[in-house]
Amino acid sequence: MSNRRAQGDAQVSSHQGGVLIVDFGTQYCQLIARRIREMGVYSRITVPDRVGTMLEAMRPDALVLSGGPRSVYEADAPKLDPAILGRGLPVLGICYGLQWLTGALGGRVEPARDAREYGRTEMRVIERDVLLDGVDEHSVVWMSHGDHVAELPPGFRVLASSKPCPVAAAADPDRRIYGLQFHPEVTHTVQGERVLRNFVLRVAGCRDDWHPGDVVQEKVRAIRAQVGEHGEVVLGLSGGVDSSVAAVLVHKAIGPRLHCVFVDNGLLRKGEREAVEVLFRDEYRMDLHVVDARARFLGELAGVSDPEQKRKIIGRVFVEVFREKARALSNAQFLGQGTLYPDVIESVAAHGGATATIKSHHNVGGLPEDLDLELVEPLRDLFKDEVRQIGRELGLPSSLVDRQPFPGPGLAVRCLGEVTEERLVPLREADAIVREEVESRGLHEGLWQYFAVSLPVRSVGVMGDQRTYENACVVRVVSSLDAMTADWELLPVDVLRRISNRIINEVPGLNRVCLDISSKPPSTIEWE
Ligand code: XMP
Q: What confidence score (pLDDT) does residue 118 get?
C-alpha cells in the first residue's frame, strides 16, 4: 500500500502555487478548500507534520491555518513549526489557527469562560484593512470557540470584535499575518466569502486562473510520465462519472494500452450496459471488456434477503470477478481508479493529537491489493464538481456527467428481500419509466435522485374484469446537497399520475404504485 500511496502523492503535488491549508482537526477543511477553488485559486489540504514537505512540493502563495477541536495550551494539541512563519508567506489563521498564531508569536490564549460563542453572533468592524474591505460595519458571523485571544502578539491590531469576543479579527499587516475567530468558510457567516476573497486574492495576490477543465493536458502528461512508453493499465469502469472521466483521461494518455473492465452484475438499470458499450467501445474506441457475471451474482444472492448480507456478497463477488479479469490481462502493471480528493484528504484525527489518519478508499468496492498493480488515480486532487467540469471538457455527454448517483450494489438495494431476475425485470422497467418521465420534462435539475423501489408485498387489484394479486413499487424522489441529509420532493401531480398509469399499465407484475415521503434523517435515501 505504501508504494501505491507514494505514487499518488507524487502525482498530486505536481500543481504549484495556490493556497496550502493546514488541517488542525476542523470538520470544515474541505469547505475551506472548496471555497478557495471556487474563486479560481488552487488549494490543497495537509496535516501539520507534512507542511514542510508540501511547501517544497507545492510552493504555495499563502497558508490558511484551520480551526480545530483542541485548546492550544494543551500539551498534545496539534502544532506547527513556528519557523514556517519566517518564510514571508501571507497567513490566515481561522479560530484555532488564530489561537496557534497568537501563542507562537508571543500573545496569550485563555479559556473564554463567559465569552464562549457557538453559533451566529454580530461582529463590529473596527478597522477594515484589506481583509474586511467591503464588509458591513455590523455583520453576522458564525463562531464556535471555547478559548479566545486574551492578548495579541506584538505588531497585531484588532480589526473586529463581537460583544463577548474582543478579538474577532486581527492582523499584523506588515507581515501579512491575519487571524479570524469566526469561520468565514461556512454560509452562516454572511460576508464570509468576501473575507476569504480579500485574503486570497488581495492580501496574498493569488492568481484566479485555476479552471479544472484546463488541467486535462497536465493530467495526460502526468499519466504518460507515470505509465511510461510501454506500461498497460487496467481500469474498472462502472459507467459512473468518476471512473468514466478517469478512463477517458487515461485513454487520451495511452490509447490502446488502457484496458477497461465493465462488470455486468445483473443489478444494472435498463440500458446501462448498452450505453457503456456504445460510448466507450464504439465512440471512444476503447479496449472494453464486458464481463457477463449476471448468473454468478444472482446465484450467490439466491435465498438471501438480509440487506447487509446482500451488500457483502455483491462486494466480494465483484472483487473476485474483477481480479480474475485483471489477471487475464496479464500485461497490465497499473490499476486505474477514479478516486476523488475527499477520499484521500489527510486529516487530523477528530480526537486531536497530531496523528494523521489517511482514508484510503477504493472506488469500485475495494479492489484487490494482491493484484500488485501500481495505482493510477488522475482525479485524486479533485472534487466531484471539478470532475464533472473535466468530463464536459472531454466531451462526455451530459447524460453521463450530470447523471444521478447510483449505488455500487445496484438494484439489489432497491429490490427489497430476495433478489431474483423475476423481480428485477419489473423493477428495471418501473425505474426506466420514472427516469424517462422526470428527465423528458427537465425535472431532474435540482433533484438528487429519482428512482423506483420494488417491495416484496403483494396486494389485490383489478385490471379489465380480472382480479390481480401482484407486487407494489415505490417512487422515491429526493433533493440533497451531499447525500448526508435529503428532503423528499413532490413531482407535479400530472407527472405522478402519468408515472403511476404507465407503471401499472406497462409493467407486468406490478399493480400498485406508492410514494415515499420520508426525509433523511431519519430515513435513508436507499431502502436498504
Ligand atoms: P443512503 O441510502 O445511505 O445513501 O442515504 C446515500 C447516497 O449514497 C448512495 N449509496 C451508495 N453509493 N455505493 C455507492 O457508491 C453504495 O454501496 C451505496 N449505498 C448508497 C445512495 O444512492 C445515495 O446517493
A: 87
